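Q: Can I see a sequence and its folded structure?
A: Here is a first one.
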Amino acid sequence: MLDKNPTFIRALLTSLFSLAIYQLSGRGRGGNVWVSPTDYLQFPLLLRALFTIFPASRLVFIRYLFGIAVMNACRHLLGKAEEKVRPKQPDDIYTVLDTFDQLGRQKSQELKKVGDILVTTSFVNNEVDVVIERNLELEKVTACIMASFETIWTRFLANHDSPTPFLDQYLNCWLHSWVTTSNPPVSTIRIVGMTANFGLL
């Protein structure tokens, strides 16, 4: 409803939050679609910002800021277990599961996707509308995510949309550090961070 109706979006006040019980036309990368399972947390959040205080080159960081809000919510609700919940660039949320052998010894770690963050934008005159769609288990985490994101978003705008205060926190918990290329010649590349403009690796 929000993603495909820019005229409707312009008539709404921001920041608008809508909690959905069912999602019948979910959209992901590459045109993937799905019908949501029951008992999942899913909602859109509509934000609006002026380009005079929020240039287009910084829009990419909204998904990372929201990822931090999810990590903060997990820390609040789960304690040390939050270290098992990690962002995977650009928009996935994973949990790290420990597997054990028959004697109870840790055998390996397995990654399982538990959610994603989809950010869409529409531009009108000198403003940008941003819609964040979230799918995540554990319904009780809603209030924690929104409270955390409100604090982060306010600080982000107050710092003239500079991602610097947040990048270290995001990079310390993400799943990327090394990437092996798939096309010849095969090589291993170390990812050391992201640029302050456009969020390039």
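Q: Show me another, different protein.
A: A second, unrelated one:
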Amino acid sequence: MSVETITPEQNLTALALSEEEIFTAHEGGKLSVSSTVPLLNKRDLSIAYTPGVAEVSRAIHANPELARTHTWAERLVVVVSDGTAVLGLGDIGPSASLPVMEGKSALFKAFGDLDSIPLVLNTTNVDEIIETLVRLRPSFGAVNLEDISAPRCFELEERLIEALDCPVMHDDQHGTAVVVLAALTNAAKVTGRELEGLKVVVSGAGAAGIAVSEILLTAGVKDVVLLDSKGI
């Protein structure tokens, strides 16, 4: 059995996108930070920064729970990658993965009104990634792992869930799996079929393929065939 591979160049051609259009859109990055409070005069500055901000800092020092309501950490997601499994590009490193992470943050804001920042790490060591995020924990409220190669991604997610007191999700696994389950559920309804009676073939046994297979089995699909480069 052969599977036709669509290259990035073929995708660009199909969408009629030019290199100039793409590079112009990405120049300077795709993200910026804006204030949620006015900074128009001396009074505004005194409230947002010194001396007013000291009151809030003192209050948080006395009651750390106030950081949940009086900083942005609780509503901030960090989009974390080491650049080892980026889209269809593979292991391209942290710097080259940053445009993708910026794009994910832009999607979070546009479609979920959720603030996030990309964080690309110059290490592929699971222990070092965990240590970095544990040390940065006061700065964010959730972790979205992105484009981290298998099998390290499984260990990393599992250990981060244990190490951090906030939500952690590996998007390539669970984000993909949720979308596939939703699409298959709708397709089954439209065609008058039940999930239990479907035979599903999953092409690719990486992080996404394995997570998709697991969620389909959990949802009731009985027959799942998982393929990798060596076959079934």
